[in-house]
Amino acid sequence: MKRFLKCAAVFLTPVALLCLVFFAAVWRSGELCDYEAAAHASAAGDVTLLGLAYRDSTAAFKSAAANDVKAELLVLGTSRSMQLRGEFFSTDSFYNAGGGVAFLSQVPSFLESLDESARPERLILVLDQYFFNKDWLTTGGSPVIDYSSFARPDAGYLLHKFFDAYSYGKFRVLDVLQTPAGVVGLSASARGAGFYPDGSYTYGTDALGDGLDPGFADSIHRILTASNRFEHSKEVAERGVADLRAALDTCQDMGIEVTAFLPPYAPSVWQYMQDYGEHTYMTLIYDEIRPIFDEYGCEVFDYSYLPETSDDQYLDGFHGSDRVYAAICARLAREAENLADVLDEARLTALFEQPGLPKVIDFTA
Amino acid sequence: MSLTTLTFGLFFAAVFAVYWIAPPRARKWVLLAASAAFYAPFGAAALSVLAVCALAAWGMGLAVARHRGSRALFAACVAVSLAPLALVKYLPGMFAVAGVSFFTFKIVAYLAQVRAGQVEPERDPAVVAVYAAFFPQVTSGPIQRADSLMPQLRTPPAFDADAALRGAMLVVWGVFKKLMIADNLAGYAADALRTPGTMIGPSVLLGVVLYAVQLYCDFSGYSDMVIGLAAMLGISTPDNFRTPYFARSIREFWGRWHISLSSFLRDYIYFPLGGSRCGAARTALNLMATFLVSGVWHGTGATFLIWGALHGLYQIAGRFTRPARERVRQALHIRADSPLLAVWQSCVTFALVTFAWIFFGAPDLGGALAVLRQIPGGFSLSPQVWKNAAVMLGFDAATAGRMALALAVLFGAEFLARRDGFGAWLEKRPAPVRYALCWAVCAMVLFWGAAAGGGFVYFEF
C-alpha cells in the first residue's frame, strides 16, 4: 500500500499544484464573486471594472445597479447601447443600463423592476433595427426575465474554462494573479473589458486592434444567410410597433421623457445591406415610428448610417466604438431638444475627432 | 454520478480508503454500501428494481442449482431476469433503470453458469447483490461472468500494489480517451450525422469517421476506467476492448470490441442455436440471429436492427468468402504475414464497421439514408477539399492540431500495446516513461479536454 500511495502522490502532486495555481487564478480574478454584491459595488464605484467571462446576468445586474444609482438620465437597450459613456453627458446623475433588455418587449418590465425612487426622469432608448423584424422576433421568443436572479458560480466549471482559455492564450496566469483591487472578472482582468461604474461597457484590448470581426466577415455571412439579427425583411413588423407602443405607454405612465435612436451599422455593412436588397425594412422603420413618438411627445432619430464615421471605428458590423457613440451624442446635442442641456456638441465633436486609435477615446486628454 | 467528475473522484477515494481499512470479511459490505450509494441518485424506483433483481438472482441461482435438469425452470428464470429489460425498453411510460441492459445480462450469465456447473450457486445474498450491482460496472458493464467476479467478492484478494498502479494508469488513460477525444469529437460527429444536408460530402464522411473514433473512445475509455477502478480495489476484470480498429476481419473485430457482450452473445445465443456445427445455411442463420439480438439490445429503432443485420451479413460473407480470398492471396503471392496485407485488411474492416456505425448513430432510418446520399457529393482527393471539409465541420487550425496530436498519442500507444493490452504494456515501460505519458495525457485533459460530467454513449443502452 505504501508503494502505491507513494507513486500516487508522485503523480498527483504536480497535477494538484497545477490545479491549485489555476484555482488561485480563478479566485483572484473574481469569477467566483457574489454577482449581486459585485453589481451593487459597481454602482457604488467600489468596483471600477466588472467583467465576468463565464456568467451572464446582465439584466439583473443593470436592474440592481440602476436601483442603487437612481439616475435622472438612464440609457436602456441591448449591447448596442452600452457604449454611451457618462463622460459624454454633463450630468452626474447618469446610468447606462444597456444590456438590461434583449427585446423591446422587455422595456416595461425592466422599468417596473426599478423602485419608484429609482425611475429616471429621462430615458435614452436605443432601438435596434431588428426589434422591427418579424423573423428575428420569432427566433428569441422574448423570454421573461427575473431581475432578482443572478447566476451562481460553479468552481469546477470555472477551473475547466480557465484551463481552456489559457490554452488559447487568452490570459497569463501571473497577470490574473495580480488582478488589481476594484477589477472583477477574467474579462476585466485579462482584457480590460467590462462595465464601468456608470454602466457603460468597454471592449478593452479588443478595441486596440482590428476589433471583433475583422473585415466584417461574420456580419456579411449573417446577411447572406439571413441569420442572427440580419434576418431578411421588407416590411416593419407589427409586433415591433406594438412593443414600442407598450414601452412608450409605460414611460408615459411613469412620467419618463424618452429620446430614442436607431443605432448605426458600420458604413460598408450598411451599404452591403442596401445593395443586397433584402433588409429594406430598415429604411422604413423611422417613417413608421416617428408619428408614434410624436404622439407621445417624445423624440426619435435614425442613426442607422453615420457617414461621418468609418469602418475602422466599429468593433464589428453593428457595434460602434466609443468614437461612434461620441458622434451619435454630437448629433443628439444638435438635434435632440430633450437632451440639449446635458450634451455639448463642440466637446463631443472634439472627442470624436480626437487623434489616436480609431476605436478609442482618451477621456483624460 | 459520472465517472469523470470530481464528485465521483472524491466518492471513490472514500470507498478505496474504507475498503482497504476494513477486514477482508467486511469488504463485500463496503462494496454493497458503495454500490447502493452510487446507484441511489438514479431514483428510488430504479434502485428498487436493481435490489429486487439481485435478490431474485440469489434465489433463482439456488433453485436452478437444485433442479439443474429442468429446462423449463431455467427458461422461466431467464425470462424473469430479462423482464425488467423488456419492460424498460418496450413499455411506454416505464421509468428508466440505469444499466438494466447490463445487470440483467450478468444475472442471466450467472444462472447459465450455475446450470452448467461452472459455478456453485452463491448462498450469500450479499455476494450476489454486489455481483449484480458492482458500482463501477453497473451502468455500462463490462458484463463480467460470475466465475470471474464472484470468487473475488467472496474472498477479496490482498492489496497488490502493481495491480493497483496498473489500474490507476488505466483510469488516467480512460479519462484521456473520454474527455480529450470522445467528448471533443462528439459535437463535430453529431453535426455530420444529424444535419448532413448542410455539408459537403467530404465533411459528412469525415464526421462519420470521427464518430467511429468517438464511439470507440467513449466506450473503451469508460471500460478502461471501470477496469482500472476495480483493479484498485483488488478486483481483476477481463479486457473489454483490445484495439478493435486494428482488426483484420469483422470476426476478429468482434473478438476485440465490447468483448464481454460479444462473448455473452456467442455463449448464450450463438452456441445454443448450434453455432457453426450445423450446415452452412444454419450457420448463416445462427450468425444473423445473434447479431440481430445484438442490434435489438443496443436500441429499439430500425437503425439498430439494420446495424445488427449488417454485422450479421459481414460475418456470413466473411466466413463463406474466406477460402476464395485465401486463394486470391496465394495467387497474388502475398505472404499471410505481409504488413501491407495487414494494413489493407484493417482498412477494409474499418470501412465496413464505420459504414455500419452510420445506422448506429443516425437519429432514424431517414437520417442514415441522408448521410449515405450526401457522402459521395463533392468527393475529391484534393487536400484543399479536405481542409474545407474540416473547416465546414467546425474545426479551426488550433482544434484540428490538438485533436490530431491526441489521436496520434491514442493510436500510437494502442498500436504499440496491441498484443499486451494498454495496462500491461505500460507496466513494462520504465517508470519515467509511465509517469511522462500519464502526465502528458493528464495535461491534455486539463488544458484541452471537454468539461467533465458528460454522459457516456453506452449508458443509453
Secondary structural class of chain A: alpha/beta
If you compute it from the alpha carbons, what radius of gyration of chain A comes out, rounded to the nearest whole angstrom? 22 Å
Radius of gyration of chain B: 23 Å
> Please, how many domains of chain A?
1
* Main interface: chain pair and counts: A-B, 20 and 20 residues
So, the CATH homologous superfamily of chain A? SGNH hydrolase
Q: Under CATH, the topology of chain A is which?
A: Rossmann fold
The shape of chain A, in one word, is globular
Low-confidence stretches of chain B: none
Could you please describe the fold and organization of this structure?
The complex is a heterodimer of chains A (365) and B (461). Chain A is an alpha/beta fold and 365 residues long. Chain A has a single domain (2-144, 152-353), classed as 3-Layer(aba) Sandwich (Rossmann fold). Chain A has 14 helices and eleven strands. Chain A has helices spanning 2-29, 35-44, 58-69, 107-112, 134-140, 155-167, 173-177, 186-191, 217-225, 238-254, 267-276, 282-296, 322-335, 345-353; strands spanning 49-50, 73-76, 94-96, 122-126, 183-184, 194-195, 201-202, 257-262, 299-302, 314-316, 319-320. Chain A has a five-stranded parallel β-sheet, covered by helices on one side. A two-stranded parallel sheet of chain A has the order 1-5. In chain A, strands 6-7 form a two-stranded antiparallel sheet. In chain A, β6 and β7 (201-202) form a beta hairpin. In chain A, α10 (238-254) packs parallel to α12. Chain A is globular. Chain A starts with a helix and ends in a 12-residue tail after the last helix. Chain B is mainly α and 461 residues long. Chain B has three domains: 18-154, no CATH class; 161-241 and 375-460, no CATH class; 245-361, no CATH class. In chain B, α1 runs antiparallel to α2 and α9 (201-232) crosses α16 (383-393). Chain B starts with 5 loop residues before the first helix and ends in a 13-residue tail after the last helix.
